[in-house]
Amino acid sequence: MSTIQLYIQQLKEKGVKVTPQRQAILKAFLDTENKHPSAEEIHLEVIQSFPGVSLDTVYRNLNMLKQLGILRELNLGERRVRYEMGSDSHHHHLICTQCGAAEEIHYCPLQFLELDKKNKFKIQSHHFEIFGLCEKCSNKGGCFDE
């Protein structure tokens, strides 16, 4: 089963109607070169197949997919929100302040702080992003993805 089919199956299991436009939004995540697209970037992908789909429709669907746990909303230090698929994988990001590239960190730096043990605090969720310059930008070059 393809990745898109897995997400479509999840929507069906949650009782959500799978419209062609929703399928196009899901497919846009797989087609875009950007691992963390914005709503505007998703919209640009979707209107290639469905020219009548508005940016508002994309936002509404992204919000619904986020509420269902299919997407995760990211704040990568920009004025606009970015999204990523597969919100169940726990990871964080290194974000370049010059080119905006985001590289995933597949371990949790929070575990080293042991806040739950030291402060007797039950952590339910957290976000951890580190901002700086990627290797290429610090050498006056491009970004992570090149």
From TrEMBL:
Binding site for Fe cation: 90, 126
Entry binding sites for Zn(2+): 96, 99, 134, 137
Gene Ontology annotations of biological process type: negative regulation of DNA-templated transcription; regulation of secondary metabolite biosynthetic process
GO molecular function: DNA-binding transcription factor activity; transcription cis-regulatory region binding; zinc ion binding
Membrane spanning stretches: none
Cited SUPFAM superfamilies: Winged helix' DNA-binding domain
Cofactor(s) the record lists: Zn(2+); Mn(2+); Fe(2+)
Species, as recorded: Desulforamulus reducens (strain ATCC BAA-1160 / DSM 100696 / MI-1)
Keywords of this entry: Cytoplasm, DNA-binding, Iron, Metal-binding, Repressor, Transcription, Transcription regulation, Zinc
Compartment(s) of residence: Cytoplasm
Family: Belongs to the Fur family.
Keyword GTP-binding: no
Record-given protein name: Ferric uptake regulator, Fur family
Pfam families: FUR
Gene3D superfamilies according to UniProt: 3.30.1490.190, Winged helix-like DNA-binding domain superfamily/Winged helix DNA-binding domain
Cellular component per GO, a single term: cytoplasm
Keyword Zinc: yes
Note describing how the cofactor binds: Binds 1 zinc ion per subunit.
Principal localisation: cytoplasm
